[in-house]
Structure formats: structure tokens, C-alpha cells
Design a protein that fits this description.
Number of helices: 11
Strand content: 5-15%
Structural class: alpha/beta
Low-confidence stretches: none
Number of strands: 7
Oligomer: single chain
Radius of gyration: 19 Å
Order of helices and strands: EHEHEHEHHEHEHHHEHH
Mean pLDDT: 90
Shape: globular
Distance between the termini: 49 Å
């Protein structure tokens, strides 16, 4: 049910990486709270399906195919959002090059520059470009809110994930810096530090792993996270209810960073998943040639 008087009514919100997982949950939640939502990602089929679902529910949404590793494509996302709805009031930086985490991440001495670049291009450049081209539209609108989706990797040591960790650490530093620069323009910038959310594909793989699963479960002080936890907090930060909150780092992790130690997820889970995907792609290619 779409609310015409919800806490995001009349606001236009762009969410990067919103064709699945956290991003998809957020655009659906924001639309139900009355926002015009701009869905973005690389999958035309997934993006169109979410747009159709939101519109069928009475909401307002458009999908803009976007490659955040490309500046022109990222600029085009913000241009399309402003052209469709007249302004941009909110931006959620959610996208990350997760397809490269399992295949390209290594400890620093073992990681090649090409793998590093693939992760940094989306995680830092994509973040920078999204803000660069959204902020002028927010200034025109009289203000806005930027929500950056970070991770426990930014505040706790994580084995064999230097690229991902560097991106999330940079995100949190940039959050504080932009909050200072753009506070006079009535633009708020905050970071959400997300813990493990069981509804996501990667978290489900972690939970099912015989070694990693028990360690992570033991570290939860309350329960596993839900997609609703992420979308609900992000909606609060985009809304006027959080008007006195900026430059902040909010940990949405069930207390994980208060107590936990991190297993080697790259070795245990992510790399095997990447290998399986590559094997499946090779088998499909071979079958197509027959």
C-alpha cells in the first residue's frame, strides 16, 4: 500500500545498486512511504520488474540502467532523475562491486592492481560521482539527505578484503567531510554501518557454512538482521524526522561490532561461490557451442 502522507511523501530518492538485495528492499519501502524512487543498476530485466511492481502498487518509480564505474553513466542517472521528477531530495549510495569480491580480493601483497581497480572504481569513484552530480540538484531543491550504506568491514578488521574495506572506510570519512561542506546548503550526510542481514544471498551462504555460520551466529547479540531493518533506518535518515542528524555513523548490526571476530569469508564462502559461478558460465558457453 502506497502512502500519500508517508514520511517520504513528495520526495524524490535515487538508490544506487537497487535491482536486488538491500537496494531493492529500500526502493520498495521508500515508495510505500510516498517517495518517487529512481531504481538503478546493470540488470534491465530486474530493474524493469521492480519498477513494474512498484507502479502496480500505486507508487511512482523509474528504472535507469547505470554503470557506476563510468562517470558519464552515473551523471546520466542523476540527470534522468531530475528530468523525470524535477528535483532530487535523497540519495542512497548502496552499490558495491560484489561480483569482484569473491574473484578479485586477496591480501594486499597478493592482490593485483586490476582487481583492486575493479572494486575501487565502483566503491569510491561511483560514490564520488553519485554525490558530485546529485548534490547540485539537492542545492536547487533547497536541501536533501545522502545516506551511505557502509559495512562492519569499515570498523573491524576483515581478513583478505582490502579493496572492500578501503571503500567502506573511505565512505565514512567522506560522509563526515561532505556533511561539513554541504550543511550550509541544508544537505545532511550520514552513514549506516550494516551488519549481517540474513535475507541477503551472501548472508544466507555465510549462515549455511559449517565453519563461518556458527561464528557469525554467536556474534549476534540480538538476532540476524532483516532487510526491513536496513530500509527502515535508511527511510528515517532520508526523512525530515532525522533533521538534526548529520555527519553520523549509525551501526545497524545487532551489536556485532561490540563483540565479534570475523572468520575468513573470502576463503570460506565468497571465493567458492565465484568459482561455482565461473564454472557454470563455462558450462553454459560450452553447451551453446555444441
Amino acid at each position: 500500500m502506497i502512502s500519500q502522507t508517508g514520511r517520504l511523501a513528495g520526495k524524490t530518492v535515487v538508490v544506487t545498486g537497487s535491482t536486488k538485495g538491500f537496494g531493492a528492499a529500500m526502493v520498495k519501502r521508500f515508495a510505500s512511504d510516498g517517495a518517487n524512487v529512481v531504481i538503478s543498476g546493470r540488470s534491465d530485466a530486474d530493474g524493469a520488474a521492480i519498477e513494474k511492481e512498484i507502479r502496480a502498487d500505486g507508487g511512482s518509480a523509474i528504472f535507469v540502467r547505470t554503470d557506476l564505474s563510468n562517470e558519464d553513466s552515473t551523471r546520466g542517472l542523476m540527470t534522468a532523475a531530475a528530468a523525470e521528477y524535477g528535483q532530487i531530495d535523497g540519495l542512497v549510495n548502496n552499490a558495491m562491486a560484489m561480483d569482484h569480491i569473491g574473484s578479485d580480493e586477496r591480501a594486499v601483497a597478493d592482490m593485483d592492481s586490476d582487481g583492486w581497480d575493479k572494486i575501487i572504481k565502483v566503491g569510491i569513484y561511483g560514490l564520488f560521482w553519485s554525490c558530485k552530480y546529485a548534490i547540485p540538484e539537492m542545492i536547487k531543491a533547497g536541501g536533501g539527505s545522502i545516506v551511505n550504506i557502509s559495512s562492519v568491514a569499515a570498523v573491524a578488521g576483515v581478513p583478505n578484503m582490502p579493496g572492500y574495506t578501503a571503500c567502506k572506510g573511505a565512505m565514512q570519512a567522506l560522509t563526515r567531510q561532505m556533511a561539513v561542506d554541504y550543511g550550509p546548503h541544508n544537505i545532511r550526510v550520514n552513514t549506516m554501518v550494516s551488519g549481517f542481514v540474513l535475507s541477503s544471498e551472501l548472508a544466507a551462504a555465510v549462515d549455511a557454512h559449517p565453519d563461518a555460520g556458527p561464528i557469525i551466529r554467536q556474534a549476534q547479540l540480538t538476532r540476524w538482521g532483516k532487510l526491513e531493518d536496513i530500509s527502515g533506518m535508511a527511510g528515517y535518515l532520508l526523512s525530515d524526522d532525522s533533521g538534526f542528524v548529520t555527519g553520523s555513523e549509525l551501526r545497524i548490526d545487532g551489536g556485532w561490532t561490540s563483540t565479534a571476530r570475523m572468520p575468513n569469508l573470502v576463503e570460506m564462502v565468497f571465493a567458492p561461490l565465484a568459482a561455482q559461478a565461473q564454472q557454470a558460465a563455462s558450462q553454459q558457453a560450452a553447451a551453446a557451442q555444441q
